[in-house]
Amino acid sequence: KEQQTVLDQKLQSSPTVSATSSTNPVFGSNDETAKDAEEEEKEMLGGVKSDMKTIQETFDLSQVPKEAYILGLAGVLPYFATSAGTVYCAWEINHAASVGSGFLMSGGMAEALLHILEPLQIGYGAVILSFLGAIHWGLEWANYGGKVGYPRYAIGVLAPAVAWPTLLLSPTYALISQFIGFVFLYYADNSACRRGWAPPWYGMYRFVLTFVVGISLVLSLIGRGEIAVPVGEVPTATQRIKAFRETAAIELSHQEMATR
């Protein structure tokens, strides 16, 4: 009877209980939750903006002279062209080997074009490395950052000393050697900026250009490495000199035998 009496009793309405009480958070009100979420979103956006600002300041090229900026970017276009050509020729050679015919050119034509692009890229790289080294001679003659002397002259001497012998190597080893040369020369240029031997903007300027050149050289190496069929190589300067000596020795022996 007592249980039935309790069940028959009607619940009394209370102003402290609302229809949305069950949807409210356990701790705090809706306003406090929304405020916390808004503050968290502001902190997250502030962190993203701070990171973007740091990246922008790190790669800031606004202080680079306009002429140097334009000509520097134009100078990397031959690398893009030769690297893209190398990758495409490699694809054409593989396509001709697997299908029996090329897409836009025959396998033999693609191989011939590849033998033209490789010396162009290697020769251009040697010229650019020498040019980058010569900049330090110009800075020394302009007395930028004071008179440095032999340390700054040494950079200008070592750059072509490393660059031009790569013409005697096979294409693969020449590209690898020039890649290493560009990286070490960038570190030398960056060190010169820290010491005040070069303009403050020159370090980041060189980083951007070296990054583009490095990517181009890597693409050329990948493209050549992806060639599935054996491809002949144009004789290097060393091989030509060796062949010339052997031919001269044979002709000399024939002349000696003829005079006897």
TrEMBL record:
Transmembrane annotation, as ranges: 68-89, 96-116, 122-142, 154-184, 204-222
Keywords for this protein: Membrane, Transmembrane, Transmembrane helix
Region forming the signal peptide: none
Keyword Ribonucleoprotein tagged: no
Keyword Iron: no
Protein known as: Transmembrane protein 69
Compositional bias per record (Polar residues), positions renumbered to this chain: 1-27
Species assigned in the record: Rhizodiscina lignyota
Domain of life: Eukaryota
Region named Disordered: 1-48
